[in-house]
């Protein structure tokens, strides 16, 4: 262990730069995840699209992101983070450019899908760098820092992006995003190194292959608490991915009469709260050695708070404050990964976490177009500058889905078995 520590110290700033590049890519992925929320009217107008179609256009990111979570782990083992992250950045750049220059809906679909393909690597790839170059006792801290940077990217995809779209137009702004991804890909290729002092030993040529990831997923799905995790995580994430990630900005514009930039700034309070709370809740859960109470508090809190800001007729400042509180409560979602890991064998941890993350991201793919479809059902025929306009009453009916999701998350938390922050399987308890 001493040699490893010395190797890390000898590397000096390099591990932090490599992690920073991986985290910058995760920042970019979150930026792209929420970017359509400030372009809803522009996209509806340019592509003559209804709410459900616009929701699907945004959700394609989530379809490809979620669908690739299991293969990404296998590809990282084979290619290493340097090649895979570089390739992913180039794919993201191509997707952003296609989206920016699309003259029809299908090219825009392809662009958003490719952005999701590139983004799918960011979380796991960045943490793979951290695991190789930093000691295990720093891993949780660095994971929290990575998540916080992702949320900063999401905030950047709200009010600052809205201002850029108002000034430059959405196509020019997305072209600039493509250029950023291209530069990031070059930096990843030049600086990132695959193997560090904490990398696991490479498998010898004559060593039998380990069971495939599908075997690990199958083993995880045999455990009921994995299904609890796959209900809790998506139902906690879906409301924010659908609301703050797409429909929150037009909701604030319609209900409170805000201009786009101000509406984006108000909605970003939810993302900011989520980013602030995630590492804090993770630390508190570890410190008190409890998962279930924090999961109950998070889901129950958001069930109540969402009903208040949706239907209590509060003034704008109170709604924005409750958006931030919603994000704070949603910090409890991060516990689902530790919870799922502790209820499964350690040798299946990668497959388990990949499957849970796939379910979480898949919720965005379902609920963004679902809200658009519900809005279309209540549409009263209003149009402005070629885009559909939905009334506050229509939003109120469609957004009833949000507290419904948090209610299901509360049910999952009630069904959760406490792990006391240790492996439930007796064969893994000593690890």
UniProtKB/TrEMBL annotation:
Catalysed reaction, written as an equation: L-alpha-aminoacyl-L-arginine(out) = L-alpha-aminoacyl-L-arginine(in); L-histidyl-glycine(out) = L-histidyl-glycine(in); L-aspartyl-L-lysine(out) = L-aspartyl-L-lysine(in); L-lysyl-L-alanine(out) = L-lysyl-L-alanine(in)
Q: Name one GO cellular component term.
A: lysosomal membrane
Where are the membrane-spanning stretches?
12-31, 43-63, 84-107, 113-134, 141-161, 173-192, 229-251, 263-282, 294-312, 318-340, 352-375, 395-416
Record localization: Lysosome membrane
For this UniProt entry, the molecular function terms from Gene Ontology, in alphabetical order, are: transmembrane transporter activity
Q: What is its main location?
A: membrane
Keyword Transmembrane recorded: yes
Q: Which residues form the Major facilitator superfamily (MFS) profile domain?
A: 17-421
The lineage's top-level taxon is: Bacteria
The alphabetical list of record keywords is: Lysosome, Membrane, Transmembrane, Transmembrane helix, Transport
What's its membrane topology? Multi-pass membrane protein
Recorded family membership? Belongs to the major facilitator superfamily.
Q: What does this protein do?
A: Lysosomal dipeptide uniporter that selectively exports lysine, arginine or histidine-containing dipeptides with a net positive charge from the lysosome lumen into the cytosol. Could play a role in a specific type of protein O-glycosylation indirectly regulating macrophages migration and tissue invasion. Also essential for liver homeostasis.
Q: How does it assemble?
A: Homodimer. Interacts with lysosomal protein GLMP (via lumenal domain); the interaction starts while both proteins are still in the endoplasmic reticulum and is required for stabilization of MFSD1 in lysosomes but has no direct effect on its targeting to lysosomes or transporter activity.
Question: Which PANTHER family does its entry note?
Answer: MAJOR FACILITATOR SUPERFAMILY DOMAIN-CONTAINING PROTEIN 1
The protein's name is Lysosomal dipeptide transporter MFSD1
* Protein source organism: Roseospirillum parvum
């Amino acid at each position: 262990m001493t040699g490893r520590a010395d190797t890390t110290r000898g590397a000096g700033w390099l591990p932090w730069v490599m992690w920073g590049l991986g985290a910058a890519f995760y920042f970019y992925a979150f930026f792209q995840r929420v970017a359509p929320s400030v372009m809803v009217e522009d996209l509806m107008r340019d592509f003559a699209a209804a709410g459900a179609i616009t929701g699907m256009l945004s959700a394609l990111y989530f379809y490809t992101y979620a669908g690739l979570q299991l293969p990404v782990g296998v590809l990282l083992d084979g290619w290493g983070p340097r090649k895979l992250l570089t390739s992913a950045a180039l794919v993201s750049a191509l997707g952003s450019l296609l989206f920016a220059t699309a003259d029809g809906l299908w090219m825009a679909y392809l662009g958003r899908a490719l952005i999701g393909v590139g983004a799918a690597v960011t979380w796991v790839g960045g943490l793979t760098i951290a695991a190789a170059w930093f000691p295990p006792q720093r891993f949780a801290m660095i994971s929290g820092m990575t998540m916080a940077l992702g949320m900063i990217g999401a905030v950047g995809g709200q009010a600052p992006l809205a201002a850029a779209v108002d000034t430059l137009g959405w196509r020019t702004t997305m072209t600039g995003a493509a250029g950023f991804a291209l530069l990031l890909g070059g930096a990843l290729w030049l600086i990132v190194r695959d193997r560090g002092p904490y990398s696991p030993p490479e498998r010898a040529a004559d060593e039998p292959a380990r069971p495939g990831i599908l075997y690990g997923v199958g083993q995880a799905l045999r455990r009921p608490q994995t299904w609890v995790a796959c209900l809790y995580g998506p139902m906690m994430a879906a409301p924010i991915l659908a609301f703050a990630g797409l429909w929150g900005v037009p909701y604030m514009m319609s209900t409170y009469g805000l201009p786009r930039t101000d509406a984006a700034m108000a909605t970003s309070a939810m993302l900011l709260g989520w980013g602030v709370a995630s590492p804090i809740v993770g630390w508190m859960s570890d410190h008190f050695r409890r998962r279930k109470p924090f999961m109950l508090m998070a889901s129950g809190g958001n069930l109540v708070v969402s009903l208040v800001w949706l239907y209590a007729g509060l003034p704008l400042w109170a709604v924005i404050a409750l958006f931030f509180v919603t994000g704070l409560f949603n910090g409890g979602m991060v516990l689902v990964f530790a919870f799922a890991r502790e209820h499964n064998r350690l040798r299946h941890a990668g497959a388990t976490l990949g499957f849970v993350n796939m379910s979480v991201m898949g919720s965005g793919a379902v609920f963004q177009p679902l809200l658009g479809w519900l809005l279309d059902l209540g549409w009263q025929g209003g149009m402005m500058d070629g885009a559909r306009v939905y009334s506050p009453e229509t939003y109120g009916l469609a957004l009833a889905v949000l507290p419904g999701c948090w209610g299901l998350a509360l049910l999952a938390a009630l069904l959760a078995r406490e792990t006391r922050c240790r492996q439930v399987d007796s064969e893994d308890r000593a690890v």
